[in-house]
Amino acid sequence: MDTKDRYTVDIVPAAHRHMSYWDMFATWVGANANNGTWFVGGIIAACGFWGGVKALIIASSISYIFLALVGYMGYKTGATTMAISRASFGIRGSIVPSLVNVTQFVGWTAVNTFIAATSMSYLLHSLLGWPVYGQPGGNKGLIFGIVVMSVLHLISISAGQRSIQIIERIGIILVIIFVLWESVVVFRDVSFSQIVDWQVPAHQKMPFGTAIDTLAAFNLAWVTAGADFTRFTNHKHTAITAPFFGADIGVFWFAFIGLVATISIAVTSGIYDANNSDPSTIANRLGLGSIAMIVIVLTSMTANAVNLQAAGSAVNNMFPKISLKKALWIVTILATFVTFIPVFVGSFLDTFTAFLDYVGMVLGPIVSIMCVDFYLVRHRNYQVRELAQKNGHYWYQGGIHWLAFGLWLAGVLIYLLLRQITWVENYFGATFIDMILIGTIYYGVMKVSLKKER
């Protein structure tokens, strides 16, 4: 077998990088201005208004600093995030972050597809009288919606990178109009002071640290997709600032709307139920009608355009002989099957919460190791050609950097242990403490190791 072909890396040359600041910014606003963000905002309503807002600002800002850091790595190398991970995990060892990326982005695609399919069930109820999802016989409309969304995803990815940019440009306009509309409706029925003064029932209150972990898991998911898009720009400023500001604006905006909309329903109904965080349920209760459901469907496509691109790039890193387009088809079909899981589990909220726990547990150590390796150990200087070279600079031992792999496993265990500590759960969350510990250990051991080599 030709090892060159086996480990090849697709590098975007500077002459082929034409992604503008607006396109990059719109991509990351669109990535977060979606139904999953809305739903997360409703979940952290269990912290109360001010607790939810503080957790949102802190966790998102820290997470998207890492997105900016990975964004620069994509600009500097021209490679995808998973190809870049070969430098720190080894050419073969990069299969670990690649598998994590495939599972988490397939999962996010499924989350957004499920929410969009729920909206379709409301549309089909209005048009054909079908039962809404959650009512007897409601699975029919949901399943139909999942199939339609999956077909739309296949059409969009088949049209290539340009179609993704067009989807993002149209989607962001629809998102702005829709969120403004919803904001007017929310504050027409419930005053801001009522939302601020609302108290979470004691048995449903979420610890602040848990909210930090929930939001960190949500936001760090985008970090491992950062370079997949910034490698298409030839401006350092675009690669660093557009993802940071775009993702932050998207998450602040949509999670905040999900937060206040969920609280407004709790205020008017007298009952707080995190399941009411579902955008379709909120839109229906606010009386926004069929147009709102259509927009929810379209905004799901803007987010999933990014999700599928990232998952496909990860598959392409693991199996370079599979073209990116074929990889995109594979992950889209896989996501279709995964979308059906909540139908059998019986609770979308329980499935979503378990998924966030998984993402937070596995992603933090990967991001920490990659950033420390590039910026502190290698001083922003990767030998790009070596990323595809067997027995080269990033081959380590048998293609695996066992230190990085071992620290990743340690990071997973430390995260689980930290989650059991009451003061961590109440005040800080486990994610960022875990990242600091793993990054510090990696830096220390690597510095000693490199000194010995010299």
Task: Provide the succession of SSEs.
Answer: HHHHHHHHHHHHHHHHHHHHH
Largest sheet composition: none
Described by the principal axes of the CA atoms, the overall outline is globular
- Return the domain count: 1
CATH homologous superfamily title:
Hydantoin permease
The CATH class, by name, is Mainly Alpha
| Rg result | 22 Å
Question: Low-confidence parts lasting 5 or more residues at pLDDT below 50?
Answer: none
In CATH terms, what is the architecture? Orthogonal Bundle
What is the number of helices? 21
Q: Report the count of strand segments.
A: 0
* Fraction of residues in helix: over 70%
User: Structural class of the secondary structure composition?
Assistant: mainly alpha
Q: In whole angstroms, how far apart are the ends?
A: 34 Å
Mean pLDDT: 84
% residues in beta strands: under 5%
CATH topology: Hydantoin permease
Description:
This protein has 454 residues and is mostly helical. The chain has a single domain, classed as Hydantoin permease. It is built from 21 helices and no strands. The chain has helices at 3-6, 21-32, 35-43, 49-77, 81-84, 86-89, 95-128, 139-158, 161-189, 192-197, 208-223, 226-230, 236-269, 279-285, 289-318, 324-339, 341-345, 348-377, 402-418, 422-428, 431-453. α7 runs parallel beside α14 and α18 (348-377) crosses α19 (402-418). It is globular and about 65 Å long.
Features:
454 residues, globular, Hydantoin permease, mainly alpha, 75% helix, 21 helices
Provide a brief overview of the structure.
It is built from 21 helices and no strands.
